[in-house]
Amino acid sequence: MTLLSLAISFLVLLSIISEVVGAPQGDTSSAGQFIPLTRRAQPSRNVSEWAEYAKNLRDATIAKYSSQRGQKRGTGENLMVNQGLDASFYGTLAVGTPPYPFDVVLDTGSSDMWVASSTCQSMCAGTGNFDSAKSSTFKNMNKGFSVTYGKGYAAGTLGQDVVQMAGFTISDQVFAVVTTTATNFLQNPITGIFGLAWQSLATSGAMPFWQALASNGQWSQPLMAFQLTRFLNDSQAGELEPGGSFTMGYANESLYTGTIDYRGLPNGQASYWLQQVTSITVQGKSISLPSGSASYAAIDTGTTLVAGPAAGIAAIYAQIPGSQPGTGSWEGFYSYPCNTAVAVEISFGGPDWSISPSDFAFTSTGPTSKECYGAFYAMPTSGGTPSWIIGDTFLKNVYSVFRYNPPSVGFAALSEIALAMNGKAGGIPSATFGANSAKFTLEPSAAPPTRTSSAVAFVISAFFATLVSFV
What we know:
Largest sheet: 16 strands, mixed
Shape: globular
Oligomer: single chain
Structural class: alpha+beta
Mean pLDDT: 81
Strand content: 25-35%
Number of helices: 8
């Protein structure tokens, strides 16, 4: 072999590996990747289907929160998909050896990770469900798992395997392999849920992926952040649209302006991502709010709308002329004249954050109706359940940051770059879970975590092996 042929071989190897570990789409930090979010457009619905959909959303939130009780370094980003005209936002992770990608809802309102099993069949309508037999690193823990959400349940068994997301890898992440769910619980292509709240809420008892990374010093900064897009009431939206960005280990400065206003979790409670609602104004008028825990709110990317106590919701709509309480499937909701631009601002002890009137208008009451249903609805509260659930109706209007240490939630104003993504159709982002992985094991005896790139290591090793053979 000549030196010329050796050099050519090395260049070929480099070109191959550039495809394997190439930079993901979108802006990234120098230290890692991001997670694209994707949004799936909402299907066309008639009046009765909208009513059923609204009832399911409300029931889902009620059940989700009544079933849960206060129970080295890098960065990464995952571009998301937005499902159902802002109904939910999902990203992609990979499980097993060899790794297989799965679309999962990114949910700061729960803490368990699960994916549908290949044995779940028609009940789990995701794409390409997980087959543990095809992963050489899967370990069955022989322990049952069951969790209840509003619109259904999921049950199966716990296991351990390699899990990758946004360039980070945990070699023995505990998660559930779900073998049964409620009918229509998963909407294609969703294959599971990725809990992003604290370990104390996990039904499985397992430490969530994000918390394991943060507590083991894997992130450049101890935080994760979301920017969500808006396509609500966009008649031109496709079945799937870009949904925004989820970052781990840093906040993407191109997506927000000014400073991030952080507020600590009340009393340091690391369960839900709690904040105290200190003021709400509607059409410029303040509504009365109780003090302390009676005004605690869970900041929840996995909830579509905003839920609150009956008295607080009634006070909001009392400021909107012509509003009326809903009945039947619309119980808990209120209607109001569609030509009223409703201006709502919420504060958590700092700045007042505005909600776009476009987000407040959930849907019209009928095809030719001039009445709309609002995105704020009432739900019953009980001990251990936050009074308010602040979902995507609010979160689409801010850059939201969830900080591990000190435990806190921060908000910032969206940048022009972020705002320009609203309603902007585009291709669905590709999965970003592989390159430049920060790899470690959760076992106590593990060696200190290091950032590696196995593909690059392979190229360099191959080059020197060839060089040795040449010499």
